[in-house]
Amino acid sequence: MATPAKRPNVVLILNDDMGYSDIGCYGGEVQTPNLDQLAQGGLRFSQFYNTARCSPSRASLMTGLHPHQTGIGILTYDSGPEGYAGNLNHRCVTIAQVLKAAGYRTYMSGKWHVASNLKTPTDAWPMQRGFDAFYGTIIGAGSFYDPNTLTRGNENVEHEAREDPAFFYTDAISDQAVDYIDAHAREHADAPFFAYVAYTAPHWPLHAHPEDIAKYKGRFDAGWDALREERLARLVRAGILDARWQLSPRDPTQPPWSEADEKAWRARCMEVYAAQIDRMDQGIGRILGALARNGMTDDTIVIFLADNGACAEDIPTDLAPEVIERELVDQLMIARSHTRTGEKVKFGNDPATMPGAEDTYQSYGVAWANLSNTPFRLYKHWIHEGGISTPLIVQWPRGIAARGEIRHTPGYLPDIMATLCELCAADYPATHGGHAILPPEGRSLVPAFTDDGVVREPMFWEHEGNSAVRIGQWKLVRKHPGGWELYDMTADRTELHDLAARHPDRVREMAALYEAWARRCGVLDRDKVVALMRSQGVTKAFWEKAEE
Q: Does residue 164 form part of some domain?
């Protein structure tokens, strides 16, 4: 599609912990005019999938492989065996490395989260994995006002946040991406560029500007039950979802909105969450503006997606101060014990404290995550549709003629590498730096740009024992430690009618394909991984996290 003489620029935008239906062009209440504009000028995919968790999704997106093949089987903590070392290995190459070899300048702004060493530069850091410039965080979460591991190039620059009272990480990610584009236009106009923009919004903690929160005052007062129904209706009207698919029941652990307590606090949690996405969209608008003023819009592929389904994790209120200091602040490095001006941070989902400010550290909880994933069930961590379904928007004015169309062709993260290799006329290598590189696992999405009837090979997933294989309309999935469930994605994408008992032969055949894939890609049985972590002294809280 592209030729070496005229390769397109690429802006790849990934956000963090956002549900399938939160943004406006996917049926949500959040005001996202810039993402909506992208959708109107390009394509929306209705059945695109991530890998259910932040680090594995980033590893798969960046390399075109399955996460276990890259060393990121769970998170960026050493979980024992090969494939679970928590560190990007040398059997893979990143999109940045592949495109750099094809003559691209490469830039990254935002969250990295595929390296185990958070303080000292290693060969798994961005500058060592193909990026000409990097600004962002090595760790996966933290304060938006004062993030841990803030890095420029290979240098820690946490002082930049502390010296600027107006610092906000979402804005900093956006502004740096804009600076990269402007500088590229001035200094490297003869070369194409690849910019990876990886937001932490709307991952907890719930931090947002008062003016953004105010936009959503009262917007969620109708509660999660009514809003889930309204979202599904909008998704069906837009042609994104099939009218035959039923809304999954409210999460059984959550009360009806009519019976929920602390409604003002609960609504505020969702208002702040919406404000986080809103702020991200404002920044995306500035990035699109930089492309426009530099005359790059027509020749730039812009891709937007999320790293997993909505997050149902609660921030506990009973953490002892010494636990917060030792684990969250010092060990995991995902929090600050005090604000930049010295106030103590209040940890936990306590209704006595409204979220949003720097001295709070909260999440929005199960019921709102259930809304975010409308109409699906389950969340981040799991491989049911609520855990792996993501919006995918692709716009390229010069190369994609479709405007405002929807594609129902399925795809998943390894496909992004294959797609960009084709569009950018870049060669995926067999070796790199003296290391043999595993062959890519995805297939190009380019045929789906013009044809919505593309048939693809089987797709596979595994995370913490949660597993799935999808072949055409059939999806075999299990929630660890349960058994296999079988769903017809054409008739029942919300996974309400398990057909495993009616189709035992299909279950056996698909399970055998899954097991063969798991062996090939280095997936280990969950119980074996837990036993290995126990033997290494990893805490029970860590290895039980997915089952909480």
A: yes
Residue 2 reports pLDDT greater than 60: no
CB atoms within 10 A of CB 55: 26
Helix (H) / strand (E) element for 386: namely helix 385-388
Residue 364: per-residue pLDDT: 98
Residue 2 covered by a domain: no
Q: Is the pTM of this model over 0.85?
A: yes
Q: Could you tell me if 435 and 90 are in contact, meaning their C-beta atoms sit under 8 angstroms apart?
A: yes
The 3 state secondary structure assigned to 314-354 is CCCCCCCHHHHHHHHHHHCCCCCCECCCCCECEECCCCCCC
Catalytic residue among 25, 54, 421, 521: 54
| Total of domains in the chain | 1
Contacts of residue 36, defined as CB under 8 A and 6 or more positions apart, other chains included, come to: 23, 24, 25
Q: Cα(505)–Cα(518) distance, rounded to whole angstroms?
A: 20
Contact indicator for 306, 45 with CB cutoff of 8 Å: no
355's tokens: 């979220």
Q: Which residues contact 474 (CB under 8 A, 6 or more apart)?
A: 486, 487, 488, 489, 506, 510
Q: How many CB atoms lie within 10 A of CB 66?
A: 29
- Strand residues in 121-255 grouped as ranges (E): 133-137, 150-152, 155-156, 193-198
Per-residue pLDDT at 544 exceeds 50: no
The answer as to whether 1 is a domain residue is: no
DSSP label at residue 427: P
The β-bridge partners of 30 are 23
- pLDDT score, position 320: 86
> pLDDT band at 3, cuts 50/70/90?
low
Domain membership of residue 140 (yes or no) is: yes
Average pLDDT over residues 514-520: 98
Which one is catalytic: 113, 184, 381, 384? 113
Residues in the chain: 548
| CATH number for the domain harbouring residue 98 | 3.40.720.10
CA distance 250 to 270: 17
Query: For residue 257, what are the domain limits?
Result: 9-547
Residues of the chain above pLDDT 90, percent: 89
Of the candidates 393, 369, 142, the one whose C-alpha atom is nearest the C-alpha of residue 273 is 369
92 flagged as catalytic: no
477 sits in which H/E element: strand 474-478
Q: What 3-state class would DSSP assign to 182?
A: helix
Phi, psi of 14 (to 5 degrees): -120, 130
Q: Distances from the Cα of 332 to the Cαs of 57, 74, 472, in angstroms? A: 19, 15, 40
The letter for the amino acid at 99 is: L
Structure tokens at 117: 């060493």
Token reading at 365: 């909880």
For residue 297, the SS3 value is helix
For the beta carbon of residue 542, count every other beta carbon within 10 angstroms: 15
Stretch (H or E) spanning 224 = helix 223-237
pLDDT digits (tens, 9 = 90+) for 100-113: 999 999 999 999 99
Q: Position 350: which residue type?
A: D
The count of other CB atoms within 10 Å of the CB of residue 67 is: 32
Q: Is 54 a catalytic residue?
A: yes
